[in-house]
Amino acid sequence: MRLGYNKPLYILPFDHRRSLQTGMFGWKGALSPEQTAQTAAAKQVIYDGLNAAVAAVVPKDRAGILVDEQFGAAILREAARSGYITCAPAEKSGQEEFDFEYGEDFARHIEAFHPTFCKVLVRYNPEGDTRLNQRQATRLRRLSDYLHAHDRQYMFELLVPATPEQLHQEGGDHKRYDQERRPALLVRAIQALQETGVEPDVWKIEGLDRREDCAKVAETFRHDGRGEVGCIVLGRGEDESHVHTWLATAARRLASGTRGELSDAFAMFRAKHAAWLDDFALFMALKEAHQGAAWSTWEPDIARRTPAALDCWSQCLAETVSCQHALQFLFFRQ
Hints:
Helix content is 55%, strand content 11%. The protein is α/β, with parallel strands linked by helices. Helix 8 links the parallel strand 6 and strand 7 (230-234). The radius of gyration is 23 Å and the shape is globular. The model has no long low-confidence stretch (mean pLDDT 91).
């Protein structure tokens, strides 16, 4: 089976277990049958939402779910029958060290549900506990070998939390660690895992702010014959403005014309939708330039859309307008 998955993929994750029990329901210890049923019912509501989204607009061949066997066994089976992409976690929930949820019986549980992807969540800092990293890498290599030997795909969610010493060196500033230290550590973590023989088809990584860091990470997980390996970028709980910044960064790269076939498709999209796209993009750029204020409060000339004002503002906001074009293209492709 060829390594990688390089298609559009939109995953709805609801494989939360320990955090759901304690954070949402406030339950401690072993669950009763009634509590287990209540948790499973909550997850069914999320799955119903996916069905509604696909019925309305989301392309089914790009839509997937990530749900656990403990509370979502029925959902996994139903989703597979319905033709969705399915992902099931292999890790024990709520642990700092990766280990198999079902121990030595992990393979039987994978085969019982035949998920498109087997997913792991791993905390791995290359400057952290060496023995911990080695134990995790050994288990993760074992899973990697098993999945590829049985034509299953491997989804790897990699977190690189700061060690106490690293955080101390950054003055206790988590944001500074994220921006200045984490990108290089992420690259080293991917390299170390690859050298151990861990070969995911899709990586899941927390978002990075700088374009050069994104490019370096992409180069790392796709080097040496791994050109089809995919990547899902996680929002990390950031607010709307931060997520918009990430989207705008991607859009600027697309608008630059350096993305090959994707840039060609973007040019065709702009030509096809020129009747509304140009005006819409300029309006959104103007709204951004005016800090979201209503158009009736803008300068009189541009509020009245005089030709001279439109020409002037179009030139001044050319980059932002192009970014808006690209954002609309990306939204239309979902």
